[in-house]
Here is the input.
Amino acid sequence: MRVTIKEVAKLANVSPSTVSRVLTDHPKISQATKERVWKAMKELDYHPNVTARKLATNATKTIGLVLPNDVKLLAENPFFIQVLTGITSYAQAKGYYIMLTNAATEEGEIEALNHLFRSNLIDGVIMTVVRENDQCAKFLNENNHPYVVIGKPNDTDNTLWVDNDNFQAMYEMVNYIIRLGNQKIAFIGGSSALTVTKNRRSGYEMALTNRGIHFDDSLVKSVKFSEAGGYEAAKVLLKDNEIDAIVTTDDLIAVGALKAVKEAKKDIIVTGFNNTPIGNYQNPPLPTVEINAVQLGHYSARLLIEKLTKVESTMNSYIVDTKLIKKA
Amino acid sequence: MRVTIKEVAKLANVSPSTVSRVLTDHPKISQATKERVWKAMKELDYHPNVTARKLATNATKTIGLVLPNDVKLLAENPFFIQVLTGITSYAQAKGYYIMLTNAATEEGEIEALNHLFRSNLIDGVIMTVVRENDQCAKFLNENNHPYVVIGKPNDTDNTLWVDNDNFQAMYEMVNYIIRLGNQKIAFIGGSSALTVTKNRRSGYEMALTNRGIHFDDSLVKSVKFSEAGGYEAAKVLLKDNEIDAIVTTDDLIAVGALKAVKEAKKDIIVTGFNNTPIGNYQNPPLPTVEINAVQLGHYSARLLIEKLTKVESTMNSYIVDTKLIKKA
DNA sequence: GTGAAAGCGCTAACAG
DNA sequence: CTGTTAGCGCTTTCAC
Here is the structure.
């Protein structure tokens, strides 16, 4: 049988509650007994039964995490595993556990979340994808379940969130491209409904405008988030226009665009976003933006844990710095 | 307050123990009461408190998962997230939960595992990396903790494991390259101490031998698992020999080798392994091997859960099929 | 086939 | 500062 609080109590010559108190670091407990108890714990190699604690405290100290069920998406975007790493290491350092789920659909996701919360398995959840008109967020709000989202939500005031400053990151990128001597710069983005696309597109437009470059709507394309999307859009752009550069909202899209550029035998600079391995191993390497996904995970966990521990946090969001990667 | 078994009992006009019995699907309980209880549960939207159940049954129905703490490794190798997906979806379907940890070092890993087991947080663990002389495996064995490893272990008889047939996969690849008309085929692998490298190297050697091609030890290189490793090794190979093809044990190594080949302006076929996005987006695309990492995760979870539920499984290992990807 | 009661290992009032 | 006591919500003997 496993060693319990009782054995420790017996060995240390105190009551179980005293042992519990030193476990929870109760303020008024004499140093002397503390040490006696610690000694006993060490001697017996005692590990508290977390399950029992959970039941008694009605707090699981566990954070839920929902992964999209799209293996291809997960495999091509280090984003997820990076976020996951950031969350896990921060949470662990704070004594929190991570419980993983995946779900194929939005309804499945809600079902999974409902189960996890209602079954007392998690205290809060971090959402790695933010959809528009997000039913999960709605569900979580309605049921008062603590959560934080990665990505700018609709209701920025009443939800906890972390994100990059996508506007500024793209603004910088476009400025960089302009300084390189380019004027006619096209934009290929993912779904125009996504907040992230909107923000990056605004940065693009603002950078042009502030440099006195005419913003031409016909140079803006919205595509499916894929290599093929970038390829097709770039082909159209190249056919119809005499452009100097193409900025995109993701390395994967950029890879497709670059392929079209090469096929057209043009010497046009293409930029990516998110600093993925795929982009990194292109030739020439794509200028891109490091979004520090590990940090996103880190701060999302931090925000959630602060909320759960009722730490008076002045913040309900966190902006993680990006870094322009210029490459050769 | 949450709805508990008591309320359900009251509404259904039975005792709490009866409710528990229908929950656990006890054999001798009348259909009539079963249905009354179900109805009550539905009416109250009852969700059993899993924590309480864990405490009572002393089974957590939770599987631990340790990720290496190397973000770069995780980001460049979809392997991990794929394995993770496979595990999660299978486990979930079987009513098991997944708890995630990461650890920076092998000692940290052991510590984490010890904590998770001793604190009654997990019933078993799946190890995603297999080291030689693995201290984690030793620890798990000594403490009788259920686990399965992904990758062929040293002691194949007494541990649960899943893996690809790396020998055969490489054998096929080399055969394919030979049939393409190549004779002088070099081999670049990762650390020669790793079982996976050894197996793939054997497949390479056997394929040559069986085709009557002289096996030349000087054409075999062991490198650090990276693009740079592949690049350097290929440069040496190209300088010293007149070779037709280079097979490698990973897409990342292959990408580096391909770079060297291009620089040398040779027309030499380079093959990868593991079918990663990085390799996929090369030009020309690398012939590679799909290792079906999701399946590896799937079967590892299956093996572990069968062990945990004491299902008399005839198997203590599982070989997941690979697929040769020839590309254009 | 079902109920009563004890107990899983811990925490948290309430006393003193 | 520390011990006593009563649960947390479930499962599981042991009766009947």
Summary: The radius of gyration of chain B is 25 Å. DSSP finds 14 helices and twelve strands in chain B. The mean pLDDT of chain B is 92. The longest strand of chain B covers residues 62-68.
